[in-house]
Structure formats: C-alpha cells, structure tokens
Amino acid sequence: MYSPLNPEITEEARKFGLQAVKDDFVTNFLISTLPEKRIRQGELENLEYFKQNLDNKRTRKRTPKNFNRKSLTSRERRKLKLFDIPKEGHKFETYLPMHELWKEYMRETLGLTDKTKTFDQYNCESILKADFHGCFLTVSKSCCPSYIATTGIVIMETKNTFKIITKQNQVKCIPKRNSVFMFEIDGHYLTLYGNNFCCQPVLRSTHKFKPKKYVAL
C-alpha cells in the first residue's frame, strides 16, 4: 500500500529512537488496536475489503467531462444546419395539412369539442402549455413596425422566436419578446403575449408561469 522509506531517513530515525514503519501499516495498526473478539468475528477482513476499495478509487483514472455526452451542442447544430429549412420547403401549401391537424389538436386542448361546456377565454394554463406548430398566427404588435400584420403558419418555434411561412412563400423569424400575437379558432380570437412564451417549447408543459390574461376580441 505504501512505498518503503528512503534508507537515509530510516537511519536518521534510529538515531532518535524511532522505529521504521512496517510495510502494511494499516493492517498492523488494526491488529494492535482492535480487541481479539472483534478480529475473530471477521471485522479485520471487512476493513481490508474497504481498504482495497479505497486504493482502487485513488488509482482509478478520472474520465474527462462530457466523455459520454451523446447530444450535440448548439454550435454543432448550427454547423450541421439542423434548424435550417431548405428552399424546397418554402411553400405555404405544404403546411396547410399541418394547420388542419393543429386546429383539431387546439379544439381538444381548449375544450371546444364538448358543446355542453362554455368556452373559457382566460384558460391561460392550457394555452401556455400548447404546441403552436401549425398555428395560423398574426403579429398584432411589435417593436419593429415591419413585423406588424405579418401572418402565416408557424413552422418552427424556438426559445425566443416564432418562424412562420407567409402566403407569399416567405419564411420570417419573429421575436417573441415585446411582441403580441393573435390567432383564431372556431370564431374565437385569442391574443398571445410573446413575453410569456420566452421559454423552450419542450419546457412549457412543466414550468409555472405568471402570465397576463388572454383577451378574446
């Protein structure tokens, strides 16, 4: 367990009346200190087992950070262009079936399929946790005047932006912060405040928000 001392050190120790440390110091120390009853019960073997594990942990090589990382970093995703939509996909008609599927999904989320229940226009929690891929969204207010009145289908949502495709087959990236959006479902017009959506879409279902009320116009 321990390497032997330099002979010069042991010679100096003998001059002062000190005894050299034996090779297996821990074992000899336990034998000299533990009662014979505890040694007979096998406690010494247990301590030897723990001592070996401790030595193995000391000699074990540490694996570098992110050695077993399987996911890509943001820089790697941008380099591979995973979030870039090819120009062949810049067609508004291509996303119309997705919009129809989104309307069915949103009707179930807002409870519009049950005719016996009245529509709750302030159902903030359900809207915050909803998925907006396929939503026909309109920008009603924005800090950038050129974004106002932009309308299209949401084809991608990130933490801070909505990426929509317009009827003119143009893909536009609209920032959520300080923007107000509007969408219509079965004659109900709902307003979304972008500041409440500055979160990764996959985390909205678990996060707790303090949103503003959504006003039905």
TrEMBL record:
One of its GO terms (molecular function) is ribonuclease P RNA binding. It comes from the Eukaryota. Its main location: nucleus. SMART domains: POP4 (SM00538). Pfam families: RNase_P-MRP_p29 (PF01868). GO terms for biological process: rRNA processing; tRNA 5'-leader removal. InterPro entries: RNase_P/MRP_Rpp29-subunit, RNase_P/MRP_Rpp29_sf, Rof/RNase_P-like, Rpp29/RNP1. One of its GO terms (cellular component) is ribonuclease MRP complex. Gene3D superfamilies: Ribonuclease P/MRP, subunit p29. It is found in: Nucleus. Belongs to the eukaryotic/archaeal RNase P protein component 1 family. Component of ribonuclease P, a ribonucleoprotein complex that generates mature tRNA molecules by cleaving their 5'-ends. Component of nuclear RNase P and RNase MRP ribonucleoproteins. RNase P consists of a catalytic RNA moiety and 10 different protein chains; POP1, POP4, POP5, POP7, RPP14, RPP21, RPP25, RPP30, RPP38 and RPP40. Within the RNase P complex, POP1, POP7 and RPP25 form the 'finger' subcomplex, POP5, RPP14, RPP40 and homodimeric RPP30 form the 'palm' subcomplex, and RPP21, POP4 and RPP38 form the 'wrist' subcomplex. All subunits of the RNase P complex interact with the catalytic RNA. Several subunits of RNase P are also part of the RNase MRP complex. This is Ribonuclease P protein subunit p29. The gene is LOC111135868.
